[in-house]
Amino acid sequence: MLLAPSPCASYNPFVPPVSQTIRVTVLFFGRLKELTGRAEDSVESADATTIEQLFAVYAARHPELAKYRSSVVASRNREFAAWDTPLRSGDEVAFLPPVSGG
Fold first, then answer.
1. Cα separation of 34 and 16, whole Å?
2. Which secondary-structure segment (H or E) carries 21?
C-alpha cells in the first residue's frame, strides 16, 4: 500500500535569508580623527561587511577621507588586517593614517 505524501512532510519550507546587522566600534587616529571630527564611532552595518566597505561608508560621509585610502592601515581587534577582512558584531576597527617624522 502506497501512502500519499503528507502535507506536513515538508515541515521546514524554504525561508528566504534575513539580512542581519552587526555593530562595530570604529576608531580614527591622527588626521583621520580631524577629518571625521571624532576619535570613536559606533556603526550598525550589514552582515558580511568588510573593512573596505566600512571605510567607504565614512569616505562617503567625509569625502576628504578618500584621499588617504591608499596610505591608511586598518586593524581589527587590535591586529593589522587586510581590507577584505569580514567584520563581525562586536569588532573594533581602527583606521591609522600614515605616520611621518624623523
1. 43
2. strand 21-28
